[in-house]
Amino acid sequence: MTDIKKLTKEKLFLPDATRGAVRFLTTKQLKETGTKGLVTNTLHLLINYGADHIKDLGGIKKLMIWDGMVLTDSGGFQVFSLIHSGKWKGKIHKDGAIFKSPRDGTEYELTPESSIDIQMKIDGDVLVCLDDCRETDLTREEAEESVERTIAWAKKCRKHFDNKYGGTKKTGKLLTCVVQGANYIDLRKECAQALVDIGFDGYNFGGFVVNEEGQLVLDEMKAVIDNTPEDKIKYAMGVGKPQDIREASKIGYNWFDTVLVTRNARHGTLYSSDIPDEILRIKNAEYANDLKPIDSKCDCEVCQNHSRAYVHHLLKIGEATGMTLATIHNLRYYQKLINNLN
Ligand SMILES: [Zn+2]
Q1: How many A from CA of 205 to the centre of ligand 1?
Q2: Residue 231: active-site member
Q3: Near ion ligand 1, which residues have CB within 5 Å?
Q4: Which residues are 235's β-sheet partners?
Q5: pLDDT tens, 71-83?
Q6: Dist. CA 271 → ligand 1 center (Å)
Q7: Is 102's pLDDT higher than 90?
Q8: Is residue 162 among the annotated active site residues?
Q9: Does residue 145 surpass a pLDDT of 70?
Q10: Backbone angles phi, psi at 149, to 5 degrees
Q11: Which percentage of the chain shows pLDDT scores above 70?
Q12: How close is the Cα of 33 to the center of ligand 1, in Å?
């Protein structure tokens, strides 16, 4: 069994097992990359499996046979962005959102309480409060409203988790919240302090982590660190590139996730310490006859046994095994990056 409390102090990279699997990997292969925890996507699990169905089958960890940590997101980020972009039909209101699944037309309501209920049914280890995440370039007024709702919803989540389920004491699960405030430093501070007053096991950085130039918003991120207790989880959601993880780690963040690691792998963008900017585009013609491993310092199954030429060939023709090998290597690269931060 995973000691969740112990993990709160460790640096972790959490791959996205969006629909209950890291694409192209078995649970055994995932474990062998050194992965200690993963993130599942509450919205995708809800509309593809159904929360009750997962509960009836014993929860996501039992289904995956995964004895590491599982963090469930609140579902809010996807639901709100799908509604904002007009891709999904739905309405955001002061207590959450109502939306229709494009899959079968089922109507769902996501509220602070229902998000906790769904996450409890999925049965991971770390829950995230529903927060009011919005698009970029918020006016002061919009950012203030988002902070106000985020605090009110966090309060409701805390109350519901404690009253209905008995909180951490009864469930062994941890509850984290999300700090909003867009690019207004004082709002980030205000939001963080109000959430600390309610009390959580972790304070996650919400909203956009990079600006239009692709730079990490370090000042905003630091405002959250400076106003939250040192011994709690600091999860930089959606961070990121190797260099961004190193920078966010330096200022005090310890949990990271990004879909890029596995998505890049499938598209042939691999990581290698042999290349100056760490990016090796394996599909490039220069690797067609290259018998060296992807990364000469990597101890993964792929680098120990296969050449760049082999992975190049498999990915060029869209062979699924190529995706598996690329994903194993990229995840191992990130887990080693994280180990080197500790
Ligand atoms: Zn490797």
Answers
A1: 30
A2: no
A3: 298, 300, 302-303, 329
A4: 255
A5: 999 999 989 999 9
A6: 9
A7: no
A8: no
A9: yes
A10: -65, -40
A11: 99
A12: 9
Instruction: Band the pLDDT of 205: cuts 50, 70, 90.
Output: very high
What's the pLDDT score for residue 1?
A: 62
CA 30 to centroid of ligand 1, rounded, Å: 13
Ligand 1 centroid from CA 331, angstroms: 8
Residues ≥6 apart with Cβ < 8 Å to 239: 205, 209, 216, 245, 248, 253, 256, 257, 258
Which residue in 16, 73, 131, 244 is the catalytic one? Answer: 73
**What separation in Å is there between the alpha carbon of 13 and the centre of ligand 1?**
16
* Active-site residue identified among 16, 201, 257, 295: 257
CB-count exposure of residue 317 (10 Å: 0-12, 13-18, 19+): exposed
Decide if 303 contacts 331 (C-beta within 8 A).
no
In terms of Cα–Cα distance, which of 320, 328, 266, 267 is closest to 294? 328
Q: Which domains, ranges and CATH numbers included, belong to the chain?
A: 4-258 (3.20.20.105), 265-341 (no CATH)
Q: What Cα–Cα distance (Å) separates residue 119 from each residue in 40, 127, 196?
A: 10, 7, 22
Please check the confidence at residue 155 and state whether its pLDDT lies above 70.
Answer: yes
Residue 186, judged by CB atoms within 10 A of its CB (0-12, 13-18, 19+), counts as: exposed
Checking if the pLDDT of 103 tops 90, the result is no
Give the CA angle between residues 39, 208, 115 to the nearest 5°.
45
The secondary structure of residue 279, as a DSSP letter, is E
215 CA to middle of ligand 1, Å? 28
- Please state the rounded mean pLDDT for residues 142-169: 97
Q: What is the largest CA-CA distance in the chain?
A: 62
Residue 342 confidence (pLDDT):
64
